[in-house]
Every structure is written in structure tokens, then in C-alpha cells.
């Protein structure tokens, strides 16, 4: 094949890619219209039966074009997830008139390139209004920015699939009046980033956030004689390596974040768990109303009376009201040795009857009880379709 023929093929592919983008934009407009209909008729956002039928039909159609069933499934899982999230955002916006801001001032940990920065960009890309980024050096500073009206929202990492819960954030939630209004899960892909042409064997000093070191402990153990230096954020680590421009130093962070500082990756996939994700929460001064058509979560905090079985008694309230608990975390109560505050995430909407019943019962059976927030769930589970079975039907 000549260079000219190759160029012609590439131009055709580029034209098709542009056409695909145009069609995806049209599809998104139609799904927004679907959301409007669901608002008027109080129809749930997700219809798993329709999604399954859609995927089966598309898999069969793809086979006619010679496309692999798994390839078709992966593509439409992403498209369906995007559709669901856009519809949920639209419904939430309509349920909270006047909440949309022309400028969203958002506080997060670190600077441009940090994982919190990337999560902030991802979450607010679906929300109307411009984004004003407010990087902070600590979780307490982030919370204070919102409490003092210097920021409208805060994005806080709450847990990681590798290193577990981020206790400092739970401790901040114990002492703030802010409400949890949203969540998102963001993939965490750690890479060793350098600012000079070097090799792994030449690295003597590593910069990263302490949580990152915990998530990459197996890699660090294998690395050997390398000094680790904790930083306030992954972006602070990347800034340091950029400024040093030394062949013996590196940062651990995302390749996308490192690119903002002219850093390149010399080794990727450093986390202990290859499927490494962090869950972030979004907090604001005022709570939000979540439409009943949207899957919701509710965050609670409570302390129980000091008697045997008190926690079990409280958790039975959830079981008896058929409410699924997705998270239970305990933290010491400041000034009260050996006493614990319990943080609980459950699936459910505070406007729903069973949830209201459970909240009333918990209020009556605990020593301290507070709803931290009810918010749309953004954990979109893909519709399960066995591609082979779909083709066999």
C-alpha cells in the first residue's frame, strides 16, 4: 500500500469518526427528551428489561456487520451509562429549581492534575454552569471553603478499593453542617512520572500522597532502596518533580495529570489492585431533593447507647425496613475515649416510605443521629447480557 493510499484511508476513517460523534450527539438529545417525558409521567430512569432487549438486538445486528458481540456490548454499556447519568442529572436539576449556578466554585485537594481535580472535572462536566477550580492543601481547608461561602461545593475522596476508607474525611464530616449531595467513582491508575530522560533503576526519591503510597505498597516493596517523601496531594508531588527536573526523582500519579506538568510515565499500573477505584462525595451547604425516579443513597451518622447489642439493634431497623446498607464505618468520638461514631451509607431516598420509617426508628433508638445527605447514586451497574445466548436466541 502506498503512502497516498494510506492517507486516503485515514481521511475516510476521520470522516466516519466525525459522523459517529454527530450521531452520538443526536442520540443524547433524544435521551434528554426521554428524560423530560419521564419527569412528566414519574417514570423511573432505568428500565433494565428494555436495556437487555436493546443490547440483544444490537448484538444480533452487529453480527450481521461482522462485529464481535463483546465489542458491541462494551460500546453500548458506555452509551447507556452516559444516557442514564445525563438523565439523572437533568431530573435532579428539575427537582431543585434555582440550584443551578452560572459559576460553580468547587474546592478539592491539590492542584491541577490531582485525582481530586480529575474527579471534579468529571462530575461537573454533566452540570450546567462554568467551573471555578479552588485547589486546597488539606481536607479541613476544603470543608472551610464551603462553610464560609468561598466555594459552593467540595469534592472529597471517601474510600479506595485498595487502601480502604479515608478516615480524615469521615472525621471532617463528624463536625460539619454541610450536606452530601452527590457521589462519583473514578478509576485510579498510578504511574511513575519523571521530568527528565531516565530509567527506573536511576530513581532514588519518590514523591506522592500518603494514600498513593499505601495503594502501591507491593510495588514499593519490590523497588528496594528508594526514599519515599509524602506530599499534600498528587499534584504537589508532580509539581515538585517538574521543578527538580532530576533523573533520580519521580512522582506517582495519573498519566493525564502528569502531562499537565510535562511529566512522562516510565512505569504504569503500580497499584496493588489492578481494578483500583476511588469513591468521591460532593458536599454543599444545602441538601438536595432527589426525585423518586432516580436511584438514591442516603448517608447517616449515629452513636448508640452504651449497652450490649445496641449497634445490632440499630442495624436491625434497616433490615426490618428492607433497606440495603452499602457502607459501615466507625470513628472515635473526640473527647469520649472508647466511644464510636458510626457512618452508614444505605440505598434509598429519604422521601420514600420505608426510609422515612427507618429514620424515625433510628432517631428513637440511638443516642445521636443525623442524616448527612440524600443524593443520586452514580454507580451505574451495566445491564447483564450473555452475548453467546443473545446470538443463540
UniProtKB/TrEMBL annotation:
This protein's name: Bifunctional chorismate mutase/prephenate dehydratase
Known function: Catalyzes the Claisen rearrangement of chorismate to prephenate and the decarboxylation/dehydration of prephenate to phenylpyruvate.
Pfam families recorded: CM_2 (PF01817), PDT (PF00800)
Location of the Chorismate mutase domain: 1-91
Boundaries of every ACT domain copy: 299-376
Ranges in a coiled coil: none
Organism the protein comes from: Aliiglaciecola litoralis
Signal peptide interval: none
Catalytic activity: prephenate + H(+) = 3-phenylpyruvate + CO2 + H2O; chorismate = prephenate
